[in-house]
Specification:
With about 325 residues, the chain is mainly alpha-helical. It is built from 12 helices and no strands. The protein has one domain.
């Protein structure tokens, strides 16, 4: 019972972070599962099965609110599913002892990616179409890392597209979220091939899902009251700290040297959070001038009270379109 509550808490925290940042459900929950002693392949399999529900709901919501660029989804999803399937099969073939340092390395890298993504300001760029030659390898690599690390599709895909500055932030979040369901299907199929279905613990999957469902409204509250750069930097540093120990074990560092390195990481983490706070403060005046009620990061602030009004407006537009042919016939 205690382990199920821990998994539900992992799902809650993961969805809380993901709902606020548009990324990090997988790497957050995978970090908790690995810290609990669950084998890397089993942890990634459980996470991806739970994500079948969370990604479908997320993608559907973004589609409903017209945040999805279907060209981007098509160019990301297919190679992402191939990469996810390949990464899942490869991870399934590794022993737990061999996989743990590999996965910890991936998670540390993804944690650093999230940390840097939210700790520095980005200059705005003109929105232009992203070439297919850039999206296809991005989907392949992000899908592979997502399966190998139990997460990474959001941190790699969302961060890369946001860094390009060629898409609206809401379109980036929506397109990456919509394509993630296909990637999750590919990774889940790979785990079924590599591990089979007999060892799947459905209680673990259900616990993660339950925690994620509970966290959805909490994520909306977090978006309104806590700046996304601060939350992203805090979570990124936590992921790095949690997984750094496995890397130090592989290298063989112990004693004072290990403590010094931990101290360096903590100092860098604090500096990144401080930088994120400055970024949030600098962005606050511009946001308050244009949208006084929205005091957080632009893309993630979609989960707000205005969603009900926007949904009603979209429904009215749909009804007007369906009535036009009838009026013309009269």
């Amino acid at each position: 019972m205690t382990s199920l509550l821990l998994l539900a808490l992992a799902g809650l925290v993961g969805q809380l972070v993901d709902g606020a940042l548009g990324m990090a459900f997988g790497i957050t929950t995978s970090t908790v599962l690995l810290a609990s002693g669950i084998a890397p392949a089993a942890a990634s399999q459980v996470v991806h099965l739970a994500e079948l529900g969370t990604t479908l709901a997320s993608g559907t919501a973004h589609w409903r609110f017209r945040n999805v660029d279907w060209r981007t989804v098509g160019l990301l999803a297919a190679p992402g599913a191939i990469g996810g399937f390949t990464g899942a099969v490869l991870l399934s073939s590794l022993s737990a002892e061999a996989a743990r340092p590999v996965i910890s390395t991936i998670l540390v890298g993804l944690g650093l990616l999230v940390l840097l993504r939210f700790a520095r300001p980005r200059a705005p760029r003109a929105h232009r179409r992203i070439a297919a030659g850039a999206l296809t390898p991005l989907g392949l690599g992000a899908g592979f890392l997502d399966a190998m690390g139990g997460g990474g599709w959001g941190p790699m895909g969302t961060s890369t597209l946001l860094a390009s500055g060629r898409m609206e932030p809401r379109k980036v979040i929506g397109s990456v979220s919509a394509s993630e369901f296909i990637v999750t299907l590919g990774a889940s199929a790979g785990f079924l091939v590599g591990l089979g279905g007999a060892g799947i613990n459905l209680a673990w999957v259900g616990a993660l899902l339950a925690g994620g469902v509970v966290a959805a409204p909490l994520a909306a509250w977090t978006v309104r009251h806590l700046a996304a750069p601060v939350l992203g930097s805090a979570v990124g540093g936590l992921i790095v700290m949690t997984n750094a120990g496995a890397l130090l074990d592989v290298v063989g560092l112990t004693g004072g040297t290990r403590l010094v390195l931990y101290g360096v990481v903590i100092v860098a983490w604090i500096a990144a959070v401080a930088a994120a706070i400055r970024v949030a403060r600098d962005a606050a005046p511009a946001v308050s001038e244009t949208e006084p009620a929205m005091t957080t990061a632009p893309a993630e602030a979609a989960w707000s009270d205005s969603f009900d009004d926007e949904l009603a407006q979209l429904a009215d537009e749909d009804r007007r379109r369906t009535r036009r042919p009838v009026a013309a016939g009269r």
